[in-house]
Amino acid sequence: DTGVSQDPRHKITKRGQNVTFRCDPISEHNRLYWYRQTLGQGPEFLTYFQNEAQLEKSRLLSDRFSAERPKGSFSTLEIQRTEQGDSAMYLCASSFQGYTEAFFGQGTRLTVV
Amino acid sequence: AQTVTQSQPEMSVQEAETVTLSCTYDTSENNYYLFWYKQPPSRQMILVIRQEAYKQQNATENRFSVNFQKAAKSFSLKISDSQLGDTAMYFCAFMKRETSGSRLTFGEGTQLTVNP
User: pLDDT value at position A96?
Assistant: First the structure.
């Protein structure tokens, strides 16, 4: 296991299109987090899962955003009807319950044109 | 809600010298963790150092150490003997100590450049 993997690394889409990102966490980690990072800013929390349950969602996660972790392993983050303001780096992180260290993926950079 | 503030957007240091990055935070929690994460260009964020709020002793990891002032809500990172590989964006982060979740609240980041 080489760490948290995110796919794709880069995505360019036209405004109004739907996009989906995938995150594969470290295999034994039961917690999975999504963050959004805009240029020059720190990551902002979007949502997190413990196993397959989505336990918390940020106010930043509008109705156009949906995240799933169907079998408690990989997760997907879908953005519907993308807007230019959605352009950002989307980071995934995983951790094991009871441990504080979160391991991050390299992120998916989304550009909405 | 917690907030984390890093007031130094950019810093630079000469190789082998020492540099200190500042971080302040605001919280009403008593039990929490503080972290410094490093984000090199085009690479994933990695944990540099962690501090438990209930521990008075400052954390140390090789060339990295912190100055944790709980009453002042200050958490600075000192990098000794700076190396070119230390060039990166550094984020200070806060985590509540609770059982139901452990999301991170990040500061804005400080871009550190180590010059040869």
Answer: 87
Record: contact A42-B102, CB cut-off 8 A: no
Q: How far is A105 from chain B (nearest CA, A)?
A: 6
DSSP 3-state assignment of A86?
Answer: helix
Query: Where do runs of H (alpha helix) occur along A2-113?
Result: none
In a mutagenesis test of the A interface, which of B104, B105, B106 is the best target, namely the one with the most A β-carbons within 10 Å?
Answer: B104
B9 interaction partners in chain A (CB closer than 8 Å):
40
Query: Is residue A1 over pLDDT 70?
Result: no
| Chain B residue with Cα closest to A49 | B101
Q: What percentage of chain A reaches a pLDDT higher than 70?
A: 99
φ/ψ of A8, rounded to 5, equals: -80, 175
Report residue B20 as tokens.
Answer: 């200190």
Q: What are the per-10-residue average pLDDT scores of chain B (116 residues)?
A: 94 98 95 94 91 93 97 97 97 83 90 97
Count the Cβ atoms, other than its own, within 10 Å of residue B57: 8
User: Rounded distance, CA A4 to CA A6, Å?
Assistant: 7
The beta strand positions in B40-109, using DSSP E, are 46-52, 60-61, 64-69, 74-79, 88-96, 105-106
